[in-house]
Amino acid sequence: MKNLLILLFLVFLFRYQSHAQGCCSGGSGSPMVGGVSMGVLQQGQFDFSESYQYFYSNTFLAGKQESKSNTVQDLSSRYLYTRLGYGITSKLSVYAELGYFLQKKERGFDASRPDYIKQSSGVADLIIFPRYLVYEKSSAKTHSELTLGVGLKIPLGNYHDSSTVYIDPITGAHLKAVSPPTVQTSSGSNDFILYGFYLMELKKQKLKLFSSVTYMHKGYNGMGEKFGDFAAIGVFANRPIGRRLGVTLQARYEWIDKMQVSPNVDFVAQGISLEPESTGSKKISLVPQLTYSKKSITLFTLYDYPLYQYMNGMQLASKHLFTIGINYRFKPKATLFQAKELK
């Protein structure tokens, strides 16, 4: 009963926060990717993960109905995500996470235009993410734990890069405009992250059931843009297959609030086209994950399959989102210093 009440509390927390305020427009920030969400590490233990994520979509939705764009044909990105964690104590762990876009590319329809392809690459954001184990209980049949965390996302990448939109045929002068958020490597804002993780393990059945809740409160960037707050809840089931393989199935709900802009900034005068009403979305997806583990190394791959999407206005929806990565956990041997006895 206590386990059920904790799980219901996390669901209630997510629903309360997700209706309070909201997240970023599509593709404007660093995604948080990697292996299955987790709790804390052992004291003195290190955790290293490296992930590669590929995103592609040419699907536009208005509400939940498929639509067509006259300006954008498709969007793709290739992203590296590095995560390093350390167990300070048996209850407190701290993570540092860094994103890097190998490429973000938006393709239009008119190949004769200088802005037919808008693209960028480079470092994205740094995330500092401590987590604390607030509850743990074990018995012969079950094991359960609750971990809470709070993090800070620090923008390192560009959020106001510009690209050529017109070339004067006589002078050859290039007219530039700020690129859309979909091809910027960062949203440019300092964001706060709240995190909850609950695990219930059924030892006899070799089954792990867990849930994670993430809420990201966005700030304003230097251009006066505030991408909508972001909230997500995932419910997982994990079971080993043989000695080394494991399968995890996740049902995931994501909510993104509408974008806000500062009333004190004249975006038109800066040549920036913004449509806050066409930002924000809801998404339900199924995420199967396969892992292969040998000793302290785990290889994993997962695919996000959207079951339902709703877009405010008309926006590019999710279509293909594939991740592959490696995780390595290790605990260095303690070095013993022994003073020599004086004779």
How would you portray this structure in words?
The chain has one helix at 2-18; strands at residues 46-57, 60-63, 65-67, 74-87, 92-107, 117-138, 142-155, 162-167, 174-178, 191-202, 207-217, 225-226, 230-241, 245-256, 260-261, 281-294, 297-303, 305-316, 320-330. It has a twelve-stranded antiparallel β-barrel with strand order 1-4-5-6-7-10-11-13-14-16-17-19. The protein is built from one helix and 19 strands. Mean pLDDT is 85; it is low at 4-29 and 336-343. Strand 6 (117-138) and strand 7 form a beta hairpin. By secondary structure, the chain is mostly beta strands.
Quick take:
With 343 residues, the chain is mainly beta. The chain contains 1 helix and 19 strands.
Tell me the radius of gyration: 22 Å
The helix-strand sequence is: HEEEEEEEEEEEEEEEEEEE
Distance between the termini: 64 Å
Strand order of the largest sheet: 1-4-5-6-7-10-11-13-14-16-17-19
Main sheet summary: 12 strands, antiparallel, barrel
Shape: elongated
Strand content: over 45%
- What are the low-pLDDT stretches, counting only 5+ consecutive residues below 50? 4-29, 336-343
- Total number of β-strand segments? 19
Q: Report the total helices.
A: 1
Average pLDDT over all residues:
85
Q: SS-based structural class?
A: mainly beta
Helix coverage percent of residues? under 10%
Describe the secondary structure blueprint for this structure.
Blueprint: H1 2-18, E1 46-57, E2 60-63, E3 65-67, E4 74-87, E5 92-107, E6 117-138, E7 142-155, E8 162-167, E9 174-178, E10 191-202, E11 207-217, E12 225-226, E13 230-241, E14 245-256, E15 260-261, E16 281-294, E17 297-303, E18 305-316, E19 320-330
Antiparallel strand pairs: 1-4, 1-19, 2-3, 2-18, 4-5, 5-6, 6-7, 7-10, 8-9, 10-11, 11-13, 12-15, 13-14, 14-16, 16-17, 16-18, 17-19
